[in-house]
Amino acid sequence: MANLIRTDHQHLPKKRKRGESRVFRLKTFGESGHPAELNELSFRDNLAKLLEFGHFESSGLMGSWSFQLEIQRHPNPLYVLLFVVEEPIEAYLNLRCNHCQYVGWGNQMICNKKYHFVIPSKETMAAFLKLEGGGYTFPEKESLSHLVELQGHVLHGLFHSNGFGHLLSVNGIETGSDLTGHQVMDLWDRLCTGLKARKIGLNDASHKKGMGLRLLHGVAKGEPWFGRWGYRFGSGTYGVTQKIYEKALESVRNIPLCLLNHHLTSLNRETPILLSKYQSLSTEPLITLSDLFRFMLNLHSRLPRDNYMNNSRNQIISIDSTNCRWSQKRIQMAIKVVIESLKRVEYRWISRQEVRDAARNYIGDTGLLDFVLKSLGNQVVGNYLVRRSLNPVKKVLEYCLEDISNLLPSSNNELITLQNQNSMGKMATNGHNKITRGQVMKDMFYFYKHILMDYKGVLGPIGGILNQIGMASRAILDAKYFIKEYHYIRDTSAKTLHLDRGDKLGIFCTIAWKCHHHNNEIKIPPQECIVVKKDATLSEVYGEAERVFREIYWELRDVVVESVADGQREITRVDEMAMNWNKGLVLEGNVGMMMNIEVMKCYEDDDRKKDKRIECECGAKEEDGERMVCCDICEVWQHTRCVGVQHNEEVPRIFLCQSCDQHLIPLSFLP
């Protein structure tokens, strides 16, 4: 891979000669000015600006560009390559985009081009170079098309030429990448925002250590892992609707832990012990299943990656002294004195003043004692939990020391003290027992498997509860398609869109056209911003609109604009069109006969697909990307999962649905 990295760090001007190379910072790439001023009003214009800064790799049928992105400069320089591959309609395997269909955009018009943004993984780059005979020879081979066909890239995003797009692949450190999943998503989100994408869809197949992240994060935070970047429910599989998805999330997230703990005690010993363990570690009460998983995710994120935190009976936590005037040594001494004072009262509740008075015999600094008492509330120190509570009668704070060593098996006596928002910090490492990120992940997987997933064969009340949780979890996992809508068009405070080009205006418009071979349906694509002179004639506006929409859409390759749509016919001047921006200008156009014939063939194929009868017991009526099987008698399609065919089983060569099978049973008795 070393031969793929360019190491020249020349500070080149924005306008570069072909063949020159430049390094860009990953952290800011995609923001306006990094590298291009992405201040245009349309996706296509911003993309053109960005590609001016790319290293041109190949031409021909599929053009491609590359950008070298710097992950870090110190201590060791680290780079990745981002490729942009332009796929024209002539290279499409299918005119219709399956990704659009599954996410709910099946009626979108066909675009002339797709743009693939790819950061290859080490494996996919090695596979690509092997396919190409080895060597970095893109200008001669002109074959980056093979790269976009490979699976397992660090990043693979796709844009249609109208600004709609799909996120196809994200892989982080767990798969050997030099980038974390968050870094990849931040880069992708900056690109979508900067380029002014319209909508981005994705099929959420994210997982970690055998756990589906859309279920894990859904239960913990009420949204998928991608929800952090604004992705929301788009469509589900197996008949799952948004209402079903939201209801399933609500029901699982609000399951009381006390109810689970009560019933699980009779089922196995380990689950209640682990629940008690994390209850004791949290500074806030964990009441619901959502509280538990959210706490564990936060705990996992706070633990260091390569080190561990220890504890033992003699372990003393330390408090971050960066915001206080006492040294760690004095703070640790005060903590030890407070713990010993609470031990002497034999685990009884005593007032804050009594603890303070007892500790003052050894620590004269009352300010230090006040700071430590405030920080120690509901924290774990070794095998003890320092409880703090407000006495409802006396209205004073009281403290109590609780021995929690019996909550854990002797062979797995692991505890950790969490960092308080203001004061709690690092732990000492004097002990011999450890808790790592891996241990928290292992416990999280245990809860995921034994609580969230189906508990088949369990009888009694707990069996009913767990099976209900399992059914709701299944519905959450079946909600796979998520969408983010980027709101970038139109500043509502503006009356006209004056561009920074002196005498030019931006006008949002679309073209309504009649599809003669599809029931004379009127099709109206999304609005685009066209740029014309302020004194442009109406025919010049028509001409610019024709140019833009012909460039974007296959069906409009020879569109001719004839007039302004009904309701806007009084508009005769360019400034009136710009004043009408809040509605958008609608033009009427016609498509030539030859193009109509090609469109007709495409829609005939669509009609044949629509004739495919899908009537699954899950309620699905359309294809959703999941595997299906067709009945050999009634020719009705159903999901293989819904008819009992497991994912690892082959589809039967001859298949009869339940209805046809039942009708055939009586015929077997005929002579």
From TrEMBL:
GO molecular function, one term: zinc ion binding
UniProt KW keywords: Metal-binding, Transcription, Transcription regulation, Zinc, Zinc-finger
Domain (Zinc finger PHD-type) ranges: 615-661
Domain of life: Eukaryota
SMART domains given in the database record: PHD
PROSITE patterns (alphabetical): ZF_PHD_1 (PS01359)
Pfam families: PHD, Ubiquitin_At1g33420, WHD_plant_repro
Protein name: Zinc finger FYVE/PHD-type
Species in which this protein is naturally found: Arabidopsis thaliana x Arabidopsis arenosa
